[in-house]
Write a structure and sequence with these properties.
heterotrimer, A alpha+beta (about 140), B mainly alpha (about 160), C mainly alpha (about 170), A: alpha+beta, OB fold (Dihydrolipoamide Acetyltransferase, E2P), five-stranded mixed β-barrel, 6 strands, C: mainly alpha, about 0% strand
């Protein structure tokens, strides 16, 4: 009986927490969508090599000419540093390509798999996206 | 072959549905963490006692018997959520050395806890060898720390 | 100066930036924070379960609380120190995270609950020390504590999803 009380209490607490996102008038989406791969090409506007996730921001020109600023998440700095990206590797204005998966909400954010320089060099972003660790077998099938 | 199995599980309908949902994975990860604290409390209760710390004025057998009930519950919560978490990103974990380290340490410490440590704690107070008890407690704590550290490393990328 | 301005200034101090961009330091602090959790909440859990009368009931409550509290307090100090550092790495980001605010609110309540318990019901522990099931107020304090720590752990874990759940 007392165990039941405890279980109910825990579930109630979790339920209260779940209510928060529902009451916030935002798109209720989390993480990325494996079915929405994105191939971006654009100019770097900002690089945040921060913990726990690094972010690369780039301006991408769509087919209609409109420029959207995309934010792509990677792993922690230690992963990017290991793969060769430092705070100074991608100065503002650098042209890069980027492959990743878009956020479920559909906004211009995503999780990055790799950055590709225009000369063809690929650098994996070491985040949570499938294949971001550089293992070919870990790519989304 | 294991990799194929991992991929098969990861992309099966229920797991895809789990990943599609915005909240299922975070909730399961949280419950996993709660299971971890249950295990932590239950393990500490006995291991601290074996080290002559914590509830050192209480008979070991008494503590061990009560703590074991909560250890089993904690293990059940942590392992069931753990299996779900694994199945969700199976191929990623397959490639993580630390995942296998964690599994090895986990199997080892659970086996040791329910054999050696249980025998030691159930023993009559007069037969309880303090030195052996301390060694067992230290091994137990070291292995559990390895499990926890391995788990934390998995959570980083 | 508003809180926002204070945290903005804090986030621009050299050590904050260094921690935020660190290769290893931040991850080490985070690891300490998450691992100490099992020690701190683990011992707190055992105390709460004893207060609820559903675990180690044959041990006098005063023993459970008296002998486990030092570990609990040591864990709490580690948690709050590592937590403060994690906050300091990016104060504005944490401050604006809705789950962080929930976590802090619940933490204040949990500490208040513990403090109240120690200064009221615990004073009369001799009365119910050997009872398997403590009196109502003790059970309430234990149960409330338990629920609050679950809320705190949950909110802490959910902080990571702020970026994707809210803009």
């Amino acid at each position: 009986m007392r165990i039941t009380v405890r279980v109910v209490g825990v579930l109630a607490a979790l339920g209260l927490l779940a209510a928060v996102p529902l009451s916030a008038h935002h798109s209720f989406a989390a993480a990325f969508d494996e079915n929405k791969p994105v191939n971006l090409q654009g100019t770097v506007t900002k690089v945040e090599l921060v913990n726990p996730h690094a972010w690369i921001w780039l301006d991408v020109k769509g087919p209609d000419g409109k420029v959207t600023n995309w934010g792509i998440e990677g792993g922690p700095p230690t992963n990017l540093l290991r793969n060769g990206i430092t705070k100074f590797s991608l100065p503002v204005g650098t042209q890069i390509k980027l492959f990743g998966y878009q956020a479920k909400s559909g906004e211009s954010k995503g999780v990055g798999v790799f950055v590709e320089y225009l000369d063809g060099r690929k650098v994996f972003m070491g985040g949570s996206a499938p294949g971001a660790d550089g293992n070919a077998n870990n790519q989304n099938r | 072959m294991i990799l194929e199995f991992c991929r098969w599980i990861q992309y099966s309908a229920p797991l895809v549905a789990m990943r599609d949902s915005p909240w299922v994975f975070p909730v399961i990860a949280t419950i996993h963490l709660i299971g971890l604290t249950m295990i932590g409390g239950a393990v500490l209760l006995v291991d601290l006692r074996l080290l002559g710390l914590g509830l050192r004025h209480q008979p070991v057998a008494l503590l061990a018997r009560d703590a074991e009930r909560w250890l089993v519950r904690g293990l059940f919560v942590a392992m069931s959520t753990g299996i779900l978490l694994f199945m969700c990103f199976a191929t990623k974990y397959y490639y993580l050395t630390f995942f296998w380290v964690k599994m090895a340490a986990l199997i080892l410490v659970v086996a040791l806890t329910f054999s050696v440590r249980r025998r030691i704690t159930a023993a009559d107070e007069t037969h309880l060898n303090r030195k052996t008890g301390r060694l067992v407690a230290l091994v137990s704590l070291t292995l559990w720390t390895t499990v926890a550290l391995g788990g934390r490393y998995i959570g980083f990328p | 100066m508003s809180l926002f301005e204070l945290f903005e200034w804090l986030g621009n101090t050299p050590w904050s930036i260094a921690l935020h961009e660190s290769r290893y330091a931040f991850l080490v602090v985070l690891t300490i924070h998450v691992l100490t959790l099992s020690v701190f909440v683990g011992t707190a859990l055992m105390i709460d379960l004893r207060l609820l009368g559903i675990a180690i009931v044959r041990v006098p409550a005063s023993q459970v609380i008296g002998r486990l509290m030092p570990w609990c307090v040591a864990g709490l100090i580690l948690m709050m120190t590592s937590g403060a550092l994690l906050f300091y790495a990016a104060p504005l980001v944490r401050y604006q995270n809705v789950f962080f605010r929930m976590k802090m609110a619940a933490l204040v309540l949990a500490l208040l609950n513990a403090w109240l318990f120690h200064h009221t019901v615990y004073r009369r522990i001799a009365d119910w020390d050997r009872d398997a099931v403590p009196p109502g107020y003790a059970r309430l304090a234990g149960g409330l504590s338990l629920v609050l720590w679950v809320v705190i752990i949950t909110a802490g874990r959910m902080m990571a999803y702020q970026d994707y759940w809210f803009n």
